[in-house]
Amino acid sequence: MSESSNAANANADASADATATTAAAPQQRTHRRMNPWVSFVGRRLVRTVVALWVIVTVAFVVLRFSGGDPVRNALGATASPELVAQRRATLGLNKPLPVQYAQYIAGLFHGDLGISIISGRSVSEIVATRLPWTVALALAAFVVILVFSIPIGMAMAVHTQGDRHRGSELVFTGITGFFGNIPDYLVAVILVSVLAVNLKLFPVAGANSAASFVLPVTALSISSICMLSRIARIQTFHTLNDDYVRTARGKRLSPMRIYWRHVMPNMVSTIMVLAGNTLAQIMTGTVLIEQVFNWPGMGTAFTTAITSRDYGIVQGLALVYGFLVLLITFLVDVVVALLERRSTMLETA
Hints:
Blueprint: H1 2-32, H2 36-64, H3 70-75, H4 81-91, H5 97-109, H6 123-159, H7 166-180, H8 184-198, H9 214-240, H10 243-250, H11 255-263, H12 268-293, H13 298-307, H14 311-339, H15 345-348
Helix pairs in contact: 2-14, 6-9, 6-12, 7-9, 8-9, 8-12, 9-12, 10-11, 12-13, 12-14, 13-14
């Protein structure tokens, strides 16, 4: 009886352990099978926040250690000591650095980007007035780049596939290589000189009409169109050699249906990454272009603040540019991951 009772108890314990193990297994599997989107977006968000913090800290340090007294540099050597002291007190520059940094970070959370050292005007007010013009210019150039570069690249890939039309390929690579390496600033100066000053076809400067967009958008677009069309051509080459494209041709589908229904969708992720990088470059590239065309955007205010040593405006606008670039990069990563759910991006990013 004792042995039978012990055996029964052992079996009961084993059964209980097995039941507990079975009950715990789904929880473990559930933990292992947790949606990767949470960790993916979390990692990307942490990277973005850390990068933004670095930009904020660098901007803070550069303003305080830019060489000499930033208030004296901005107001000039003839400014009275009383005015300099008053402006330093207004900016909080007479407080210890840790206190300044803490107040600076706290102000950013409340939308306070600082004030102009010279005029005392709020940088947030400057951004609110000028940012829409910069965004409008960048988006217009971005649309033009996508509309021209992708079709041109795809058309050249189809036209030169299989080592056909070598002459056309050489002309294409030569032209895109040449114009793609000309700085946007130089293109802008040439356009103003030829089309605005000499031929008087477009306004020289300002943003008074739709025609005012033509020259700055063109200056921002030419280099990117050349580079992106070359990449689109190479990517189309690779896609045209894939098995599913050969299968579509075997079904005697029309060329246009093959290109737009089979080739184009499989290039979307690559195009999105390139487009995102291009948009980020355009946002920063508007700084010099706006100066050439006297565009009422942040770029003009940024360069003017640099030349006048108004580091309060420089600091605030640099933060806005950095935030826009980081935001674009973050959104592109998320969109690409959405488009390629089966990629290794979510697991390895």
